Amino acid sequence: MARDRNEVVVEVKGLRNSFGEQVIHDGLDLQVRRGEILGVVGGSGTGKSVLMRSIIGLQTPDAGEITVFGQPTIGRDETEATDIRKRWGVLFQGGALFSTLTVAENVQVPIKEFYRHLPAALIDEIAAYKVVMTGLPADAGPKYPAELSGGMKKRAGLARALALDPELLFLDEPTAGLDPIGAAAFDELIRQLSRTLGLTVFLITHDLDTLYAICDRVAVLAEKKVIAVGTIDELIATDHPWIQEYFEGPRGRAAASTREFGDPASADAQADRHPTEVRTNAADAPSQGGSADNHARDAAETQTGTR
Ligand SMILES: Nc1ncnc2c1ncn2[C@@H]1O[C@H](COP(=O)(O)OP(=O)(O)OP(=O)(O)O)[C@@H](O)[C@H]1O
What's in the keyword line of the UniProt record (predicted)? Predict the structure, then answer.
């Protein structure tokens, strides 16, 4: 049965997060719709990763409501939380693979966690399929992360995120650290997978090329909330200074010109837009909190949470 592309898959209402005196989010609202690739941007330290961690249950907010697939995620008992978690995959910043496991074993971690009674041969087969699905050569399965290039590590992390056939994919800066060709290839992979598998994608990025190439809508974090959501053209039409500087500055213009000169991926993305809504509020520039040790933190989370 065809799925309603206006269905809200993730809904965040009135989110508040703080660390001691530092308030990260206050009154943050956001919706992610079925089948869209939603880019999430904002200055460093504006709380993009904390938002993602709140949605996936790694961060307990001070206040607010979060529903995923129509079900509240805060305060659920373990069984209910597990049932929801099975339906999403996460690629953390840096890939966060277990360094002592091979690629195939990394991909098997969530399968064994959630479906421990599956026969070993079937788990092997599923993992091998996911490895190939992300464009890795079949012989990458027995390799350790240290033997892989940066781009291959990202693909291995993506294979693990896809292990359970998720409907919803969270990606935290997936192209960070990749060369432009590798980044464009990874963008294309995400776009293809999202189309083929009907995935909904929540994608944190600083990469303007990624936004133009594959995102249906973009949410801008600033001033402790989501100050605007819409297509890039709609965002550019707003007069918020950070949005203007971001999209109309030299790097933004360079990324836009790539689109204008016929990048096929972005042309498709533009042609298949969802109905959009643009909201903006106060015109102040966003706060620029420092964000230390994100990579170490994500790796630590992966050690405990597998995704
Ligand atoms: N566990 C934590 N304890 C204390 N402060 C934290 C914690 N997690 C995040 N922060 C702080 O919250 C703020 C937002 O962090 P977050 O990692 O979400 O930012 P970000 O927008 O993803 O930044 P970047 O673009 O640099 O990755 C930062 O100031 C960060 O230092």
Answer: ATP-binding, Nucleotide-binding, Transport
